Amino acid sequence: MERELITAVILAGGRARRLGGVDKGLAQLANRALIEHAAAALEPQAGTVLVSANRNSERYAALGFEVVADPWPDYRGPLAGMLAALRRARSRYVMTAPCDAPLIAPDLAARLHAAIADGARAAVAHDGERLQPLFSLLDRELAEPLAHWIENGGRKAAAWMASCSAAVVDFSDRRDMFVNLNHPEELRTFDTRALAQPS
């Protein structure tokens, strides 16, 4: 698989209510912003890394990221961030991951891409118990079908993946990837030893 086939987008466009409204991607873990941990894991797997964010775009840009904002101003959920990335990307595929998951697997792209290579237009991770729809790989041609879905009230990422017959990829051997950090206490107590190291 060629990295240049994939644009990775880190989803950081939510309101982070459980973190008291703090921009989650900029929350600190081991002296780095969460967004930097996600990028360290995704950059070796993609030709380009984007950040989906609806505030603090200047701060993300100062960290070296290209930022894409939702097409709508009213927080329509992570699908809106996926759509913004699909419209911006020049690559064939867009891979998505949330900003609060610091243990993204180094083979996320390869395994999702292998599933798409069998003829699907989307692939989505499964942790062995449930679907993890924010860890996905989407064909860029899904942009306008996704826009139509959102404009007609669709918000649930799992329902969208089902609607486009996404291939489901077993990541039960990588369950630590799906640990997300939603509360200040989780940030304070997280075991940082497994984090990707800065290059």
Features:
7-stranded mixed β-sheet, 7 helices, Spore Coat Polysaccharide Biosynthesis Protein SpsA, Chain A, two-stranded antiparallel ribbon, 199 residues, 9 strands, alpha/beta, globular
Descriptive account of the structure:
With 199 residues, the protein is an alpha/beta fold. It has a single domain, classed as Spore Coat Polysaccharide Biosynthesis Protein SpsA, Chain A (Alpha-Beta Complex). Helix content is 29%, strand content 21%. The chain is built from 7 helices and 9 strands; from the N terminus they run βββαβαβαβαββααβα. The protein has helices at residues 34-42, 57-62, 78-88, 108-116, 143-151, 157-163, 184-189, and strands at residues 6-11, 28-29, 32-33, 48-52, 66-68, 93-98, 122-126, 131-139, 167-170. The strands form 2 sheets. The protein has a 7-stranded mixed beta sheet, with helices on both faces. Strands 2-3 form a two-stranded antiparallel ribbon. Helix 3 (78-88) runs antiparallel to helix 5. The protein starts with 5 loop residues before the first strand and ends in a 10-residue tail after the last helix. The mean pLDDT is 92.
Oligomer: single chain
Q: How helix-rich are the residues, as a percent range? A: 25-40%
Looking across the biggest beta sheet, what order are the strands in? Answer: 5-4-1-6-8-7-9
Largest sheet: 7 strands, mixed
CATH fold-type name: Spore Coat Polysaccharide Biosynthesis Protein SpsA, Chain A
- Poorly predicted regions are none
Distance between the termini: 22 Å
What's the number of helices? 7
Q: What is the number of E strands? A: 9
Structural class: alpha/beta
CATH class: Alpha Beta
For the record, the count of structural domains works out to 1
The portion of residues forming beta strands comes to 15-25%
Query: SSE string, helix = H, strand = E?
Result: EEEHEHEHEHEEHHEH
Q: What gross morphology would you assign? A: globular
Mean pLDDT: 92
Q: Looking at this structure, what is the CATH superfamily?
A: Spore Coat Polysaccharide Biosynthesis Protein SpsA, Chain A
CATH architecture: Alpha-Beta Complex
Radius of gyration: 15 Å
